[in-house]
Amino acid sequence: MTTDSLNVLGPMIRKLDRLGDLSEQDCLAIRSLPFTLGVFPANRVLVREGQYVTRCCLLVSGYAARQKVTKEGKRQIVSFHVPGDILDLQHILLPRADHNVETITQAKVAWIAHDEIRRLAEAHPRVGEALWRDTLIDGAVSREWVVSVGRRDARARIAHMICEFAVRSVAAGVALPTNFELPMSQDQIADATGLTSVHVNRTLQLLEKQGVIARDRRSYHIADWDRMRAIADFEPDYLHAAVPAMA
Amino acid sequence: MTTDSLNVLGPMIRKLDRLGDLSEQDCLAIRSLPFTLGVFPANRVLVREGQYVTRCCLLVSGYAARQKVTKEGKRQIVSFHVPGDILDLQHILLPRADHNVETITQAKVAWIAHDEIRRLAEAHPRVGEALWRDTLIDGAVSREWVVSVGRRDARARIAHMICEFAVRSVAAGVALPTNFELPMSQDQIADATGLTSVHVNRTLQLLEKQGVIARDRRSYHIADWDRMRAIADFEPDYLHAAVPAMA
DNA sequence: CGTAGGTTTGACTGATCTCAAGTTTGGTGG
DNA sequence: CCACCAAACTTGAGATCAGTCAAACCTACG
User: Fold this and answer.
1) Which residues pair with A193 in a beta bridge?
2) If DSSP states are collapsed to H, E and C, what string results for B84-137?
3) Please, is B204 exposed, middle or buried when counting C-beta atoms within 10 Å of its C-beta (0-12, 13-18, 19+)?
4) Which chain B residues touch A191 with a CB distance below 8 Å?
5) B176 touches chain A (CB under 8 A)
6) Contact in structure between B201 and B207 (CB atoms under 8 Å)
7) Residues in a beta bridge with A88
8) What does each C-alpha distance from A174 to A63, A169, A232, B15, B103 come to in angstroms?
9) Is A38 in a helix, a strand, or coil?
């Protein structure tokens, strides 16, 4: 028995099982992965751009984001993450980090050596397939972000980001379909959507005034999911999240 | 001997060898892949969003792009492709297309069944690894596009797109570092960068007036690569293209 | 209760868009 | 070889969405 007593790897197993329909043996194999646990405060860099990494970073609890910074010092967040996400699976084959990985809230993180994951993937092909599928979905999410930032106006962009985060939070088992935390600051929403925090603030107020969302601090309630989806031009298929209530 | 007499798979082998350092056997195995050849005119849809596909689409010659269309009918190009690129490797594990694949110019395409590629990857792990690495680079490119569209101004965005396309063209062996074709229309550049074609036109003229590029129709010459890179905030590492002259 | 980070508001600016009219280019048929 | 046409490119003028700057207001936390 490893330190898995607190079910550290549970969120990842839940996710991979959804992506790959794993066997009992597959799940046991995952559960016996060796890892190192860490707890980090909010806004802590876990992996820095340029670093050569030899282990993956599994988000056990809390929230995280990946981001790049332009030469002019502008920040762009390229993805948000919920518990169960492996934050940098791509580093197994591309070991030089091309972006930063940072916590958004306090977060519990399990470090897993690349070699261990490779071994697991070879011994358990369905797990390997689920892991690869996960990286491909990551790519699909990036493409959808390109579309949002490139061709949607501020209201649709922010609505889309909220819809995506809501579905992923529900899939990860940390939220209900209409009630969830958006753990990031408005500054971070701005950096994810390519806007300024001032405009994010005004647009969130607009969505509120139009009656599609309600907020209290960083707790969000979606008052009208169908209208929200229409505003966001949100089609959740690309997430492969299996949340029928939100499809 | 297959119909490979015209060396149809050559561009892909060149690319995978660069990504995976393949053995003689690996290359031979790729070369014996069965495929179906097709030639398509410019602006032809090869794969349509929503389709369930069972084969991959290898670009042998010519240029292609992948794109999504918003509910409001706005188009966003999410990637451009050069000879040797497999246009939809992700469909092996996510068989429902979440975007369109279209030709930009007349293009020669080899269709390869997913099952054949799976078999190849299992029998030749280094080939499999190179293929996966390719999908991960595709993800890295998407992230870089998010940064461009989200946080760079029109001039940097267009310059970045040109730099990326130049490096990839050189790596594919269809261009020299400072002289290459940009086969897409200004409309398509606009749809890739999240701008309008009017603004793309003005910005290309600006880059010309500033002496960093020269154009004749769709032939481009980069007059000052260092300045171009600086304007674009372009760091080619993420492409893993191994073009030292442009690094 | 003081402080820092986050949120909200107001007034003004500006990069990019929109619309609309030319101009050039490349292909096609007579 | 030329006339014609459609698509692509270019230019101009005015409109707008989102940005900038700056101040005020919360609110969590020490």
Assistant:
1) none
2) CCECCHHHHCCCECCCEEEECCCEEEEEEEHHHHHHHHHHCHHHHHHHHHHHHH
3) buried
4) 150
5) no
6) no
7) none
8) 11, 5, 22, 42, 42
9) strand
Give the end-to-end CA distance of chain B in Å, rounded to a whole number.
39
* Confidence class for position A3, pLDDT limits 50, 70, 90: low
Average confidence (pLDDT) over A18-41: 95
User: Measuring CA to CA, how many Å separate A22 from each of A15, A25, A130?
Assistant: 10, 8, 9
Q: Are B142 and A146 in contact (CB under 8 A)?
A: yes
HEC secondary structure over A39-69: EECCCCEEECCCCECCEEEEEEECCEEEEEE
Confidence category of residue A5, pLDDT binned at 50, 70, 90: low
Sequence-distant (≥ 6) Cβ neighbours of residue A144 within 8 angstroms: A160, A164, A238, B68, B98
Lookup result for tokens 């979905």 = A137
Identify whether the C-beta of residue A64 lies closer than 8 Å to the C-beta of residue A79: no
- Dihedral, B169, B172, B177, B181 alpha carbons, nearest 10: -30
The answer on pLDDT for A171 being more than 70 is: yes
Q: Which pTM does this prediction carry?
A: 0.97
Q: How far apart are CA B111 and CA B85, in angstroms?
A: 12
State the Cα–Cα distance between residues B12 and B57, nearest whole angstrom: 11
Positions 142-181 of B with beta carbon below 7 A from strand C are 153-155
Q: Write the pLDDT tens digit of every residue in B87-97.
A: 999 999 999 99
Q: Report CA(B220)–C1'(C28) in Å, whole number.
A: 28
Q: Which chain C nucleotides are covered by protein, judged by CB under 7 A?
A: 5-11, 15-20, 25-26
Q: Coil, helix or strand for A121? A: helix
Q: Which pLDDT belongs to residue B1?
A: 46
B73: number of Cβ within 10 Å: 7
B152/A contact by beta carbon, under 8 A: yes
Question: Distance between CA A158 and CA B113 in Å, rounded?
Answer: 39
DSSP-assigned letter for residue A73: S
The whole-angstrom distance between residue A195's C-alpha and the CA centroid of its chain comes to 20
Q: Does the pLDDT value for residue A93 go beyond 60?
A: yes
Q: Give the end-to-end CA distance of chain A in Å, rounded to a whole number.
A: 39
φ/ψ of B55, rounded to 5, equals: -145, 155
B129 interaction partners in chain A (CB closer than 8 Å)? 93
CA distance linking residue A107 with residue A80, whole number of Å:
13
Distances (CA, A) of B223 to B30, B110, B227, B229: 39, 36, 9, 11
Give the amino acid at A16: L
CA angle A240, A55, A71 (to 5 degrees): 80
B247: pLDDT confidence band, cut at 50, 70 and 90? Answer: confident
